[in-house]
Write a structure and sequence with these properties.
This protein is an alpha+beta fold and 584 residues long. It contains 21 helices and 19 strands. The longest helix is centred in the N-terminal third of the chain and has 34 residues. The N and C termini lie far apart (140 Å).
């Protein structure tokens, strides 16, 4: 009997100890949760009773040098549904299907999906969204949003670029300056019950969105429009694949126009332009093929494609020779119509040759044997030293994505023949913009500028303006060489191969080029002309490239007149007085 009492007391003691230990653990745990983890679990509890919706920030505008808006925003709406709050699902399905132009099956899948919030459609016109809002459908949410809009549609399409459905930049300036143009989204916090139903009359938490900054660029809408008209006109006249034109200020690198014709519609960027669509009309395109075609359509060839510059590159060869003092304007040369270099016969464009001529006559005639001779005088080492100075081994640094670099021989493998062909712009490739940058340095007094479009960033919050700065490399050539080059290139236009770029009342300088595309003897050429004005104090430089023209293909015949037509309108527009620049 006593043993049983002792046994019971021991059991009670053990049970009591266990209870006390468990109670101690629970109290300790509860104290830890209430004291040390209270904020975390309080936040979790609040989150269970809050629904968060984004308030889209307005993307910054892109405006031209005169303040004209090129890329803006249009207010649109996003329509969503909250499953737990829908009272009349069939009614909601029917109305949203009819108003938004969607199939009932598609809407039904989203309406019946048991999720916190389900998007039905984005980029809904505001008037359509307002009509749905007036119907007061329970469980249907309408949030304000923005859609990118381009008032000039295809203007400078491959420069400006476009945005995706999330309003992020895809190509061009839109992606290059995405971090500047994008704002910071705001938030709406709505209180809900444990079942996810919004609590009526409960105050909403709201964090206001911050708009993106505006970007002012150097591109001029009027110059761009006129330049595109010229490009389209020559495309039709010569049945060419594409035309590229760049117009720039050679003094500071600001780009006034950059044309890649044909352009595409920025408001419908995934639709193939007619010129491309007609090529594939009878082909069943795969998804990958279509993607490749679109990427090619969006490609900015002015900076992404390389080519052999041809005779326009004689500007670089000439400037290098004058810097090295291995040629003077009075030096004489003889052209029999060809030049023998080692075991190669390299011909001049004039079959019978130019005979005896001074260097001035040689550059006016664009005579290959003359430039082979002065290229040899400069030599391989110095030639590459000047290529480095002129920035030909590096990208220009333009503020656009997708820039290509030059394709050059390694210096170690260059022999007499390679040096000869390089002297007149063959056997290597550069981009059109690299040629413009180098030429600008030669005619602006020796400053290697960075071509660019971005000028300043404007904050919408406080109207603060931040200037964008770009690198300038000085003393690329001497002022003496620059002055000689401006005079020589003016003579090319006034009395040489570039005479079709002559413009009464203005001094125009420039150089023609006709580049044979690879493979040789394919009968395909690029006709081009690079020109600047006024010749004694250049304020504008332009480069025209006509790809695979039909019929006559010489740059001096079909590209030079475009420069005259362009400058006839652009120079007065920029305030250059023709009366002060009268030709002799």
């Amino acid at each position: 009997m006593n043993r049983n009492k002792t046994y019971n007391k021991k059991n009670i003691f053990i049970i009591t100890c266990v209870i006390l230990v468990v109670a101690f653990i629970l109290i300790t745990r509860l104290s830890y949760l209430m004291i040390f983890k209270s904020e975390e679990y309080g936040a979790r509890a609040q989150a269970l009773h809050e629904r968060e919706r984004a308030i889209k920030a307005e993307r910054g505008k892109i405006i031209d040098r005169n303040g004209i808006e090129i890329a803006i925003n249009k207010p649109v709406c996003t329509i969503s549904v909250i499953h737990s709050q829908i009272k009349e699902p069939e009614k909601v399905i029917k109305i949203l299907s009819d108003e938004l132009g969607l199939s009932e099956d598609r809407v039904r899948k989203r309406v019946e999906k048991n999720s916190s919030i389900e998007r039905i459609k984005s980029n809904v016109k505001k008037e359509d969204a307002d009509r749905i809002r007036e119907m007061d459908l329970k469980g249907v949410m309408i949030d304000e949003d923005y859609k990118r809009f381009y008032p000039y549609e295809s203007l400078a399409s491959k420069v400006i670029g476009f945005t995706g459905s999330d309003n992020q930049g895809i190509i061009g300036l839109e992606v290059k300056y995405d971090n500047i143009l994008q704002g910071i989204d705001g938030t709406i916090l709505t209180l809900t019950t444990a079942y996810g139903v919004e609590i009526e009359n409960a105050a909403e938490g709201r964090i206001e969105p911050q708009s993106g900054n505006d970007l002012r660029i150097s591109l001029d809408v009027n110059i761009q429009q006129y330049t595109e008209q010229i490009a389209l006109k020559v495309m039709e006249a010569k049945s060419v694949n594409n035309v590229k034109i760049i117009v720039m200020n050679p003094q500071n690198g600001e780009i006034y126009a950059m044309v890649n014709a044909p352009e595409f519609n920025l408001n419908d960027p995934y639709k193939m332009i007619d010129e491309i669509e007609s090529e594939y009309i009878d082909i069943d395109l795969t998804e990958q093929m279509e993607s490749d075609i679109l990427n090619n359509m969006w490609r900015n060839a002015c900076i992404s494609d390389t080519y052999e510059p041809g005779s326009a590159f004689k500007i670089i060869t000439t400037a290098s020779a004058f810097e090295e003092n291995v040629v003077t304007v009075d030096d004489t040369f003889f052209c029999p119509g060809y030049k023998r270099v080692e075991d190669r016969i390299i011909r001049c464009h004039k079959a019978g040759g130019h005979g005896s001529q001074t260097f001035v006559e040689g550059i006016k005639n664009s005579c290959n044997p003359v430039f082979i001779e002065i290229g040899a005088r400069v030599g391989v080492d110095k030639t590459y030293e000047y290529y480095e100075k002129f920035g030909l081994f590096n990208k220009t640094g333009i503020d656009l994505p997708g820039e290509a670099n030059s394709i050059m021989h390694k210096k170690e493998i260059i022999k007499a023949v390679e040096l000869a062909t390089m002297s007149f712009g063959q056997s290597f490739q550069i981009t059109p913009l690299q040629l413009m940058r180098s030429t600008s340095a030669i005619i602006n007094g020796g400053y290697l500028v960075t071509p660019h479009l971005g000028v300043e960033v404007i904050s919408k919050e406080n109207n603060n303006v931040r200037k964008l700065n770009y690198d300038i490399k000085k003393d690329v050539v001497s002022k003496r060489t620059s002055d000689i080059m401006k005079d020589l290139l003016e003579q090319v236009v006034s009395d040489g191969t570039g005479r079709r770029a002559f413009l009464p009342g203005f001094q125009i300088g420039g150089k023609t080029a006709t580049s044979e595309k690879l493979p040789r003897r394919s009968g395909k050429y690029i006709a081009s002309f690079i020109g600047f004005a006024p010749a004694n104090d250049p304020q504008v430089i332009a480069l025209v490239l006509i790809d695979e023209p039909k019929g006559m293909y010489y740059g001096g015949v079909i590209a030079a007149p475009l420069i005259a037509e362009l400058f006839d309108n652009v120079l007065p527009y920029l305030g250059v007085d023709a009366k002060e620049e009268t030709q002799n």
